[in-house]
Amino acid sequence: MKQLMNSVKNKEGERERTAVLRLELDYELATLFDAMNEQNEDLKMKSKQKLEGIRQELLKLHAL
Q1: What is the C-alpha separation between 31 and 35, in angstroms, rounded?
Q2: What is the residue-level pLDDT of the chain in tens, covering all 64 positions?
Q3: How far apart are CA 63 and CA 13, in angstroms?
């Protein structure tokens, strides 16, 4: 029974983290769009790095 409860809590935590990551993904995509419009190469690189980190974490959570 204890293992079942831990499993349920773990899956709930994964769902919550996935939702947060998707919000972060949307925000970072908007930031990248703005950087592209402003032709700000530094901000574009930083956004792309953050997006890659978010992508990796989503892949680990099997959400992508």
Answers
A1: 6
A2: 666 556 666 788 889 999 999 999 999 999 999 999 999 999 999 999 999 999 999 999 885 5
A3: 13
Cα gap 17→54, rounded to integer Å: 11
pTM for the model stands at: 0.79
Q: How far apart are CA 9 and CA 48, in angstroms?
A: 32
Whole-number Å distance between alpha carbons of 62 and 56: 10
Contact 42, 6 (CB under 8 A): no
Residues 6+ apart with CB under 8 A from 29: 51
